[in-house]
Amino acid sequence: MKPTIDHADVAVVGGGPVGALAALGLARAGRKVVLVETRARRAPIHDARALALSWASRQRLEEEGAWPATLPATPIDVVHVSQQGACGRTVLSREDLGLPHLGLVADYAALTAALNARLEEAGVTVLWESRVTAVKSLARYAALEVESAGQRAALTCRLAVLAEGGALAETLPGIRRSVHDYRQCALLAPVTFEAPQTGTAYERFSLEGPFALLPYGDGYMLVWTRSPEEAAALSGDADMLKVAIERAMGGRLGAVTHTGPCAVFPLVLKEVNRVVSGRVVLIGNAAQTMHPVAAQGLNLGLRDASGLIETVAGSPDPGSPEALSGYAARRRLDSRAVVGFTHSLIQLFDGHDALSQWLRGTGMNLLDVVPPLRRAFASHLVFGVGQR
């Protein structure tokens, strides 16, 4: 589709879950919204990721009509946190917060398809197969250069929302992106065990690297942090992978009965120094890309989208300095706390000496036996820091 819209109240760049949620919410608030997405409307979505969505994220998507009853999702009712080879564990439960579930696991492709359908139902203008090649902010509007079908056109708006992880943000005045390469990869694979899946997610800090087993259909989705060399070797040898998983789990779920196709993703922390530049705001992966430990990246991005909707919905000018400074202030605590928490977890569980293991085990046991601490911790994971 050629870009034929020349002006909108809000232009959203990036049609993933975070950008789509922002577009839906702002359109529902009465804004004229244009979403720019590089994918074709009917193109198959080839993405192996299983998304661990908190209950709060699921509610927000449902409010926008983007969580249909037919969406396949597996509930998470319990989160079991432990470390291999040492004492200490914490168990978080839906009963701690009085929720139906702590979260749910859904395929990226299924959730994105549901959001695409909802965008169409809501009448949001989407420029499919289009790419923003430049963005700049002026006093009264932002200007985007949109390329589609070999042609370029200008799109102006009162507010531009960057919700994709490209390099556009780094072209904006005052925006700097810090990058920390973990020199690790995430190994993803569907796994089944002898023991049935019962709605428990396992977050285990193994000697080889932290890994999660997320309830996924009748089994689990493995997300294991390994070195690039180890991830490549395990992804190419199903028998080796089965043995490694069983050793890391210590027999808790019995033998591995099946592993599915593996996918490997490099792990890098990216964070911008500020999320606002003039009339341009950064949300989701444009603002921060995180390590998957604790499964907080997408949930944080969806809270970015929700915070933006709530902050600018009633503003006469959605791109005004007052509106965007209010958004930045509102999101600062949650964003910094979650990014800092996930980064610290990797450093905290990197040491495997006796003292480090004892200190970690003591901390987990303390969290487990003090209900107010446990409930506060669970609330931060589900709702965000300072968000409930």
Automatic annotation (TrEMBL):
Its cofactor is FAD. It holds the Pfam family FAD_binding_3. Residues 8-341 form the FAD-binding domain. One of its GO terms (molecular function) is FAD binding. It comes from the Bacteria. GO terms for biological process: ubiquinone biosynthetic process. The keyword Hydrolase does not apply. Pathway: Cofactor biosynthesis; ubiquinone biosynthesis. InterPro entries: FAD-bd, FAD/NAD-bd_sf, UbiH/COQ6, UbiH/COQ6_monooxygenase. Keywords: FAD, Flavoprotein, Monooxygenase, Oxidoreductase. Belongs to the UbiH/COQ6 family. PANTHER family: UBIQUINONE BIOSYNTHESIS MONOOXYGENASE COQ6, MITOCHONDRIAL. This is 2-octaprenyl-6-methoxyphenol hydroxylase. It comes from Gulbenkiania indica.
